[in-house]
Amino acid sequence: MTPSLSPFPTGPLGGDPLDPGVLAIALVSEHASPLAALGGVDAGGQNVHVACLAGALADRGHRVTVYTRRDAPDLPGRVELREGVEVHHVPAGPAEPLPKDELLPYMGEFGRYLARGWRTRAPDLVHSHYWMSGLAALRAARAHGLPLLHTYHALGTVKRRHQRHADTSPPERIPGEIEIGLGCDRIVATCRDEAAELTRMGIPRHKIGIVPCGVDPDRFTPKGPAAPRGPYPHRLLQLGRLVPRKGAAVAVAALARLPGTELVVVGGPPADRLDDDPEVRRLRGIARDAGVADRVRFTGAVPSEDVPPLLRSADVVVCPADYEPFGIVPLEAMACGVPVVASAVGGQLDTVADPGTGRLVPPRDPEALAGAVAVLLADPAAREACGAAGRRRVLSRYGWGRVAAATEAAYCEVLDAEPAATGAG
Ligand SMILES: CC(=O)N[C@H]1[C@@H](O[C@@H]2[C@H](O)[C@H](OP(=O)(O)O)[C@@H](O)[C@H](O)[C@H]2O)O[C@H](CO)[C@@H](O)[C@@H]1O
Ligand SMILES: O=c1ccn([C@@H]2O[C@H](COP(=O)(O)OP(=O)(O)O)[C@@H](O)[C@H]2O)c(=O)[nH]1
């Protein structure tokens, strides 16, 4: 490791000064806690990203604090997620779950909490996730002259373009995202499409670096238990938050062109609340109308340890989102050696190699989705080759160790320091 990187007092969390070269890193993730259950409307890839990035940075010897909003009264102020990673529950607004689009009024309080804490124990750098965290962190980091890096995870301009009136983001979002981009020291975008969108928003290209999201290839493996299959010769699987933009309706409509195939939809509310969920009801209606209701199964949200067996049980994983800022699910499928048919949007343009690891098809096009899937279902050898290529692609590019190393390099650029010598995994 290299000489001390910090002009600021270190040891922000444990109290003791840190060894030279060890960074004290503050990750700010206002609505997406690394401790949250996944699959709900607001708990998805960002939660995974923050948890895994924090862990992989700790593996490289750094000390990480994740700041997330306290959304239940009984949450402890601090929780050790693992060695080197602590989660702080920030009091900002009522200590109860709130939709993320209602959190902006509490971001001043969130930022003041950060600034107060950093007065006595400042991190070496701050890395904020999602626009509201960026606003809170911008104020607090500026107050102490701390370097700030930002990852958007999703952009208001893109969401507005695709969802129009259904977009419930506050009007402050797009101007806020520009303010963050102009005010922070560096943007850690996750794919080329996002970098292009940011430059169209007027953010200088030289401030933007690209580091993808990652996957844990030791947890997501081709070998291992597979979930039991239904009575059909073929299984498609879709995984993620159950919101309309994820395109499950496209997958259901495609099923009408794929006889002998079942579709398992993983994610959404807990299994015992599926019947009350508006999106499940909508999708069941579409399935009924298409005459495929008996071949569509909803599991509800599943804990992350149950995800690899489900992925392994599928012949093809479909990711037909209308838009997808990055999309961790294709990486998880590829890591499990399963071919992916994804919409040609966002991060999926970078992650899915067509035809090597799967196929890219136009979004919102059930016919194109069904066509690409049918070719793979008819050819077991092609599926196996795609799966193996997907696994190789993940191992060579997307392990969290590599992602953390590249993120650390961005931190060091901002701090004008040398990266640590630790190998990437
Ligand atoms: C659809 C989408 O934006 N997915 C991204 C993103 O995920 C979530 C997204 O940021 C949600 O916000 P929004 O409604 O404004 O789009 C948040 O509620 C969720 O917490 C995010 O998980 O980030 C993922 C990680 O970078 C990315 O893989 C995914 O494509
Ligand atoms: O019931 C569920 C649904 C989703 N996920 C995980 O949630 C993440 C979704 O991330 P992605 O980036 O694909 O989409 P986002 O939800 O952020 O839009 C992936 O790690 C999934 O494995 C999960 O563990 N259980």
TrEMBL record:
Domain Glycosyltransferase subfamily 4-like N-terminal, chain residue ranges per copy: 44-219
UniProt xrefs under InterPro entries: Glyco_trans_1, Glyco_trans_4-like_N, Glycosyltransferase_grp1
SUPFAM superfamilies assigned to the protein according to its UniProt record, in alphabetical order: UDP-Glycosyltransferase/glycogen phosphorylase (SSF53756)
Key word Ligase present: no
Domain of life: Bacteria
Enzyme Commission number(s): 2.4.1.250
GO terms assigned for molecular function: D-inositol-3-phosphate glycosyltransferase activity
Biological process terms in GO annotation: carbohydrate derivative biosynthetic process
Enzyme category, top tier: transferase
Keyword set includes tRNA-binding: no
Residue span(s) of domain Glycosyl transferase family: 236-393
Key words of the record: Glycosyltransferase, Transferase
Protein's recorded name: D-inositol 3-phosphate glycosyltransferase
